[in-house]
Amino acid sequence: MRIVATTTDPVRLSFLRALLADAGIGSVVLDAHISAVEGGIGAFPRRLAVATDDEQRARAVLTEAGEATA
User: Is 3.30.70.790 the CATH classification of the domain at 2-64?
Assistant: First the structure.
């Protein structure tokens, strides 16, 4: 698995997942349940991961949509 995005914004995270799904790329949200630890304040970013083989294509999809991340 490779991390292709990190965000504290749940709406953006949903959008990024939709972009990848439309391109046929499966994704997994890591740290999705950390809110139980942080009290729901949104301080800890969630990480969006894809399979290693899909990383380049996923980054291309995100870049094309103007959502490129470092």
Answer: yes
